[in-house]
């Protein structure tokens, strides 16, 4: 279903992958040990309107959760043993995957124990638990009802620690809700953009059982006239929820040149690091990095992309998403500088400002630059963790997607199967590209002079022989 919706939009054929297969194949059987909440469906949308100048619109997303574990999940309305739910919006445009909105969190208060994911086993705690195989819906308006919203900043996404009682954001059309700048939605300023919403449950006993990595799901949306929002594709059909995957995964799903790696911080949660290299940046190549912090509480305070010696770096850029409605965090963009190691961005240190604009859970931040270094040589980034602890930093491997020197059939290997495509790319590049539409031509530029020709033969043979 998802692939069909994307195909209608993009006119390309996508792999169907494992999406949805997990729950379907195992319907009626618990997937995991312990309580395990997932965002089973994003099923409803609501547009609340805009602020008075019309610069920010507010939305909510209706969510259905399921417990796919083998133990009831706590859903108390009187203490901290309950889930909270985040809602986010993202945009793919011009080779970028950016977050354009986030909400305060919905505090769960009562599990209805319905049968969306299979035959619900009514739990002993009734509505104060989500039973095995049971589902619970929160409508879009309920997920935007301000009395039930609390800040993101008081929740530890890795442990699920959260306060029993929470502040509320106050009243008004957009307060506390999923806020998106009108400029990020205006069709005249966003030609070709694709939009996605994400829901993310955080729960203490799901986290304690180690089942916290499947809690986010995303779904494509379309912006309608008057800045409404819909799951219905104006060209026909509708999107479906992509279960158990954070929104950053859609970037790779629609663009096969994107590389994506996940990175588990020791003693803390998970980061996703996505990278897209494009030939033709100011310095020879453009690099576009998107990092999604799924549930890493210590957050990321700086990034350095490690470049080979002699490589240039220029044209540094950054993109974040606004906090709002009284969340304590700074929104100051990370300044970019060029260090001996490579392009570097950092927010203020924790010791200086614990509320600095770190890359915290439930957000994607972007880092972009141009460089003379080809993708094969841009393979690592150092991420410094924002909050004190050990380790102080982690090394992220950059998956460069289909960029691999000498891989002329884009199967991820450089071997004898690449000989015929190599002959073709140097003799008939147009014919080769037609036969390998998602394979970068410059995989054939083995001597790094920016051209693919017979001068690349010697290095190609050397790559073949290891
Ligand atoms: Ca889970
Ligand atoms: Ca900012
Ligand atoms: Ca190959
Ligand atoms: Ca060359």
Could you describe the 3D structure shown?
With 466 residues, this protein is mainly beta. The chain folds into three domains: 2-247, no CATH class; 264-397, Sandwich (Immunoglobulin-like), CATH 2.60.40.1170; 416-464, no CATH class. It has eight helices and 23 strands. The strands form four sheets. Strands 1, 2, 4, 5, 6, 8, 9, 10, 11, 12 and 13 form an eleven-stranded antiparallel beta sheet that branches. A hairpin with a 5-residue loop joins strand 1 (37-50) and strand 2. Helix 6 packs across helix 7.
Oligomer designation: single chain
Q: Profile the largest sheet.
A: 11 strands, antiparallel
Number of strands: 23
* Cofactors, ions, other ligands: calcium ion
User: What characteristic shape results from the CA principal axes?
Assistant: globular
Low-confidence stretches: 1-28
Distance between the termini: 42 Å
- Provide the structure class: mainly beta
Whole-number average pLDDT? 92
- Rg, Cα atoms, Å: 23 Å
Characteristics of this structure?
Immunoglobulin-like; 466 residues; disordered N terminus; 8 helices; mainly beta; 11-stranded antiparallel β-sheet
Give the topology, please.
Blueprint: H1 2-10, H2 21-25, E1 37-50, E2 56-67, E3 73-74, E4 84-93, E5 96-102, E6 105-107, E7 129-130, E8 135-138, H3 140-143, E9 149-150, E10 178-181, E11 194-202, H4 204-208, E12 216-223, E13 229-230, H5 249-254, E14 258-264, E15 270-279, E16 285-293, E17 300-306, E18 313-319, E19 336-338, E20 343-346, E21 363-371, E22 380-385, E23 393-397, H6 419-427, H7 429-435, H8 457-464
Helix pairs in contact: 6-7
The structure holds calcium ion (4 copies).
